[in-house]
């Protein structure tokens, strides 16, 4: 991907395509259909696409994939705890972003991933996300560069990302029949972000109510019966 930077002096970030693999290295899929962009794209437009939920199918990744110019990386304070989003919101916005779908990064997923182990312990990531947004300075950068309407969009995105992450952890634990992790996650929600507690309790209630149906469906599928 070095050629992307050499070819275009305005290119400040670059990405390969992502190939998803399991713990044994077997290919599970790729992200080509959700990365339908040209060799070079306006980084700010990619950031806006992120704020809109990738409605343009221009950029998606399971985590940090962008290679960032060293001078820009150092100037803006280096990596932070929300690099999954700051790679676009903090770095790509300063120029053009290159993309080479023929270059590939292999992204392994397995049960021993740190985030999965943390979820099993009831971690809802509220504190780390709040601190990550603060240390990233994304809000300050956008407030100084763009108008109020655009700045409000990134603030709304931040709030939604944090709340949806909390709710997703609670929902995932109960959907995977992990009752004790679900209880621990509720405890952490109450301690760290009580404003999300009632909604989290409702998610757990609905999950418990649906558990018998989910278990029966799983049994019937193993027996080859559909309903």
TrEMBL record:
InterPro entries: Nucleotide-diphossugar_trans. Keywords: Membrane, Transmembrane, Transmembrane helix. The chain crosses the membrane at residues 196-216. This is Uncharacterized protein. It comes from Leptospira interrogans serovar Zanoni str. LT2156.
């Amino acid at each position: 991907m070095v050629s992307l930077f050499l070819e275009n002096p305005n290119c400040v970030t670059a990405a390969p395509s992502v190939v998803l693999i399991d713990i044994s290295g077997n290919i599970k899929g790729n992200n080509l259909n959700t990365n339908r962009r040209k060799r070079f794209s306006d980084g700010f437009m990619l950031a806006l696409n992120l704020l809109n939920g990738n409605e343009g199918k221009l950029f998606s990744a399971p985590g940090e994939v962008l290679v960032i110019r060293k001078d820009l990386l150092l100037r803006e304070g280096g990596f932070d705890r929300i690099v999954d989003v700051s790679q676009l919101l903090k770095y790509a916005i300063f120029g053009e972003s290159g993309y080479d779908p023929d270059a590939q990064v292999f992204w392994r997923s397995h049960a021993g991933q740190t985030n999965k182990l943390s979820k099993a312990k009831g971690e809802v990531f509220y504190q780390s996300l709040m601190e990550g947004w603060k240390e990233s300075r994304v809000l300050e950068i956008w407030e100084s560069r763009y108008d109020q309407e655009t700045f409000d969009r990134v603030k709304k995105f931040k709030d939604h990302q944090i709340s949806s992450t909390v709710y997703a952890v609670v929902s995932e634990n109960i959907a995977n029949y992990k009752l004790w992790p679900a209880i621990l996650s509720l405890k952490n929600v109450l301690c760290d972000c009580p404003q999300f507690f009632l909604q989290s309790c409702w998610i757990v209630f609905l999950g418990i109510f649906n558990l018998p149906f989910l278990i029966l469906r799983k049994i019937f599928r193993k027996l080859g019966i559909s309903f």
